[in-house]
Amino acid sequence: MRVLLRNTSSGCYYQGEGQWVANPEKGFDFGSIQEAMDWAGRLTRDNLELALAFGSPNLISAVSMKAAQAQVAQSRPTF
Q: How many whole angstroms separate alpha carbon 65 and alpha carbon 4?
């Protein structure tokens, strides 16, 4: 599984160093959902989604970063 960031306005994937590409195979693989979420916070864009690519570029599942961040916040234990 590859962990990517996708711009919902353009449909392009983050490649690195401010570059975006249409081909998900050329998008940067963050390696983990947490790493992608950390980078999304640094990119300061509201139109990002977390995209998970499974083997083929046609098998991509995505969720908005706001939804992903809300899920993580809900799953953290409170003391």
A: 11
Determine the Cα–Cα distance for residues 39 and 10; give it in Å rounded to an integer: 18
* Type and span of the H or E element at 37: helix 33-43
Q: What kind and span of H or E run contains 34? A: helix 33-43
- The DSSP 8-state label assigned to residue 55 in this structure reads S
Phi, psi of 49 (to 5 degrees): -135, 155
User: pLDDT-derived band of residue 72, with 50, 70 and 90 as boundaries?
Assistant: low
Residue 23: closest CA among 45, 48, 53: 53
Kindly report the pTM of this predicted structure: 0.81
27-42: per-residue pLDDT in tens? 999 999 999 999 988 8
Please give the distance of CA 40 from its chain centroid, rounded to a whole number.
7
